[in-house]
Design brief:
- It is built from five helices and six strands.
- It is an alpha/beta fold and 162 residues long.
- It is globular.
- The two termini are 23 Å apart.
Length: 162
């Protein structure tokens, strides 16, 4: 099986022009959003996609759909609701409804998915050991994708040495 994990993270930056289009209400600042696709077993980064401002995770996924290997199985988080219409070979945790809680079996199902999905959070943590990604980004915004790809390449190279 070719299993990949998809998730996104936000990186804050200082916008000198104070434009509203790049503002993220979640972080209360201007942000870049970076989506990573990693291989489940090897934990190598297969693809990165960047965007400015408040872009939904699923929207980034649709933009980056051609980067996913053919016949791959996708694990994602709850931010990718509706992925089944675009990519049927995917697995998401279930959301509880407003009126009632999840059954214990469904909670167990969500826990099993999240146990397998946690690898991408560890990858983001490893990438953010580079201070340029963990703190407020102060360089040119056009080059964030290039810098993130270079750091991902270093991460993949270090992973292959182990």
């Amino acid at each position: 099986w070719n299993v990949v994990i998809v998730d996104a993270t936000e990186i804050q930056y200082k916008d000198l022009k104070k434009t509203e289009e790049n503002y993220s209400g979640k972080r209360k600042s201007h942000t870049f959003k970076v989506q990573a696709i990693i291989h489940y077993r090897t934990q190598k980064i297969l693809s990165l996609c960047t965007s400015r401002g408040a872009v939904h995770d699923f929207e980034l996924f649709k933009r980056n759909l051609n980067q996913i290997p053919k016949s791959a199985f996708i694990l994602a988080d709850k931010g990718y609701q509706g992925i089944y219409t675009v990519y049927p070979n995917s697995l998401l945790p279930l959301k509880a409804k407003k009126c009632c809680k999840l059954d214990p079996e469904l909670k167990f199902y969500n826990q099993e998915i999240n146990k397998r999905r946690i690898g991408i959070e560890h990858v983001f943590g490893s990438l953010k050991t580079f201070r340029i990604l963990a703190e407020r980004y102060r360089n040119r915004g056009k080059r964030l994708g290039l810098r993130f790809n270079l750091i991902a390449g270093i991460y993949n190279m270090e992973l292959s040495k182990k």
